[in-house]
Amino acid sequence: MENWSLFSLCVLLGLTSRWAVSFHSYSGAGKPPMFGDYEAQRHWQEVTYNLPVHEWYFNTTNNDLNYWGLDYPPLTAYHSLVCAYVAKLLNPEWVELHASRGYESHSHKLFMRATVLFTDILIYIPAVLLYCFYFCDGSSKQKVATALCILLYPGLILIDYGHFQYNSVSLGLALWGILGLGLGWDLFGSLAFTLALNYKQMELYHSLPFFCYLLGKCIKQGLIGRGFFQLAKISLTVLVTFALCWMPFLSDPKQPLQVLHRLFPFGRGLFEDKVANTWCSLNVLIKIKTLLSRETQLFLSFALTLLFILPSSLKLLSKPNLWQFKLALVNSSLAFFLFSFQVHEKSILLAAFMLPLLVKDGLLLPYVVTSLAFLFLSLYLLSHLTRTNEPLFWYFPFLVISVATFVWLEPPAKFPDLFPVLVSILSFLHFLGFIIYFNLVQLMEPQRKKSQKKTN
Amino acid sequence: TVMAAPMTNDQSWFYALALGVSFLKCLLINAYHSTDFEVHRNWLALTHSLPVSQWYYEATSEWTLDYPPLFAWFEYGLSHIACFFDKEMLVVPNLNYASPATVLFQRLSVIVADVVFFYAVKECCKCLREDKGKDLLGKPSFILTVLLLWNFGLLIVDHIHFQYNGFLFGVLLLSIARHCQNRHFEGAFLFSVLLNLKHIYLYIAPAYGIYLLRCFCFTQSNADGSLQWRSFSVVRLVILGTIVLSTFAVSFGPFIALGQLPQVLSRLFPFKRGLCHAYWAPNIWALYNIADKAFSILGVKFRLLDINKLPKASMTGGLVQEFQHSVLPSVSPLATLVCTLLSILVNLPNSNIYTIFVILSLLQPALFKIWHRPNGARGFLRCLVICALGSFMFGWHVHEKAIMMAILPLSLLAVDSRKDAGIFLMLSVTSHYSLFPLLFTTQELPIKIFLMLLFTIFSLASLKTLFRKGGALLNPLEVTYLLGLIPLELICEFVYPLTVWQKTFPFLPLMLTSVYCALGVTYAFIRLYISLLTCSDTTKKTKMQ
Fold this sequence. Notes:
Chain A: The chain crosses the membrane at residues 110-132, 144-161, 173-197, 227-249, 298-318, 325-344, 364-385, 392-409, 421-440. Chain A: Belongs to the ALG6/ALG8 glucosyltransferase family. Chain A: GO terms for molecular function: dolichyl pyrophosphate Man9GlcNAc2 alpha-1,3-glucosyltransferase activity. Chain A: Residues 1-22 form the signal peptide. Chain A: It is a multi-pass membrane protein. The structure holds two protein chains of two kinds. By secondary structure, chain A is mainly α. In chain A, 67% of the residues lie in helices and 0% in strands. Chain A has helices spanning 3-21, 37-50, 74-90, 106-135, 140-151, 154-164, 167-183, 186-199, 207-220, 226-246, 254-263, 278-285, 288-291, 294-318, 322-339, 355-360, 364-385, 395-405, 418-444, 448-454. Mean pLDDT of chain A is 83; it is low at 449-456. Chain B contains 23 helices and no strands. Chain B is 61% helix and 0% strand. In chain B, helix 16 runs antiparallel to helix 17. Chains A and B meet through helix 1, helix 4 and helix 17 of A and helix 1 and helix 19 of B.
């Protein structure tokens, strides 16, 4: 069968599972007064449509920041504005200032779900297809299999189409950035990644590898000649993109400061809820949240994040090729996840460890189905296309299934949080293991063949 | 390290496909379900709560039991498992009860019952001619498995609209597989069971009857394929008869003993219903209706007819009705039955002497002539498809879902021959599109479009690869017709609802869909008919079975 038909089948399967998951409940459905992320997105449409730009990030009479105030960069706000225009066309009640708070209806749900699907089809899915087509080794069958696995990845589907978010936009843009760099279009790649960064500040997790790769490449081309011009062009692209995105906020020095304040809420503390990172796990033994002052916490998290990120970044700087770049991305995001400030459990986008969140949203069925399907599919394809059958592969489904069973077990009365905490700690240990493993792989380069193939 | 016991490449892809489609079905649990959901819930309730003597008399709900007794027993068995999900669904007066547990149970029962279908598909794959050395995606058995397991019609009718067709078609396909494997007694038994599960399969009973009589009871043919009368085996006939009769006895026995047979039959064959279902199935009567409407409009316009004297042709509205036609003669149930019988009888296994006169002639001479050249299991399958399609084309109160009876067996033929693949593509795409009005909710719109594209792209690409030698499968006219479905869909579901006519003529998109698809279905029927007539020469030397 031809490639295009196989790829389109993958896309259609991915789209079908996405839309089928969207039939289910969303975050905060029917739960006044605060509802959930779904209501937050609707509220942002209301705010951006009805209020002038300089009020979006400020606490005013019309804009109560305590009720889902905007805490993503301006591109999210513009996206909400565009959606709001469409919403106004379909049904003005959806974005009525104040009156539309907590608005829930079947047609509104369809509209919101449709906006996610639209951006997914526009940004994320083409990026995945191009990535698999150009940057995966192996036969065309393996490329198609990879595309299928990526498109059916449960974490993204459940959060975007279930819980309700727009991660596909920022991830998609970041993926376009990676594609750009991989094809040698550095300017395009920087543009795409800057846009991703301006959509969700979480993309900072990936910013250091981008920076080090591009800088390393320019240095290699010679800082006196071509390299310098390249560096200048890239910096200009980034700066102009930032300026364009933040333009409405540059009129008054208070504006960007307020926006930054909303994006990085250092006031909220080291962590919230049960997150599988160092601070939450450490908190079980030593109550660092209460023990250390906020400044010390900030400093500690910054220092450790930097510590874990530095080796990988320096290695990438010295050897700027694609394979190093990919590994650095993994290491950087892991480091940020494990050690930075105010990390939310959604950041890891790993389905297994978001189980309590999803159960709360009423998404248990799609969670079980998509996770099992993904596990079986990827294991099946992996064993058939690579012709190996490491017993190690079976460790992961075992792990996921045992994590999932925690849902059904009753915790002892003395420690009602026992199981979520155990799951967090277990996950944390795994992530710690991963970051050490991937750092070692990147630093020691055991697979020389691959890196030679991928040098620019 | 390599695992000690590797997964055999031979069959694991089958289980992967089966598991994959089951996961998809689980994701659709929360989708829209039609009144058929309440129908089956009602049957669960009445078989569980009432004694057998009351089953066919119960009429609290408008959805009375209108399937044969074995299906009622099937629902009875299910009801015992339903107890563990939600006891309230088994209370008869709880009309339209649809708690989450009820929905979960009913959906899961369809998904689990599909295991029968999986097994049947596996058995059918064994009947195919395999080409060793082809890669997986080009293997006929792989293609057939996907065409059957991931069939668009089954997915949306069973797992969204809600029915048990997968289970029933599993029994049918298993019966066909058994005949292909020369295990005729099992095949006949399975078909009898099927008839007692859903009597709509009576439409293809003539194919079974003629095939078994001609090819099984007469154990041998002459060298040229014609009938050898001396080889008639009474033993086989008796055993077949016993199997069929005892199945019916087990099924209908209790009701005959209770003297309820007339009541049961009246429930099973309600001739009081109208010629067409609420939404016209894309068959001959859709074209007949539209012709009638056209003539009446033209007649009044050209003052050939007096509008006051015309009987009002009622075609609007969404209920099951009698159709009074304005200009053309109104069709009665008897007329349709006669048409159906004639169309079927003429299409049975090969005969070289077809003319218009034969079509109009009496039953017996036609029967006698078609006994001449049977073509074994392939011919039986072809005959079965034509019976199913013929009864769809001319049948009384045909539901558009009935087209599945023709498509699924045709898939078996499609992976075997080029011509059949072309006809299959035409028929499947057209009839799958004709199922669109079944899911009229906005939420299900993307699903039906994605799944339709999925199935269509796969069937086109895989069959094209399978038969890449010998030119295109579809001629330009057919391709144009199929492409015409895209603007049709855009107009009917996107453009038309935004126009002013939506309020005054709400039925127009349905009518357009039905008529457009009727053209495609009729075309496929004619081509199938012709291919049956013209393929006789290649089978003169075929050994019996």
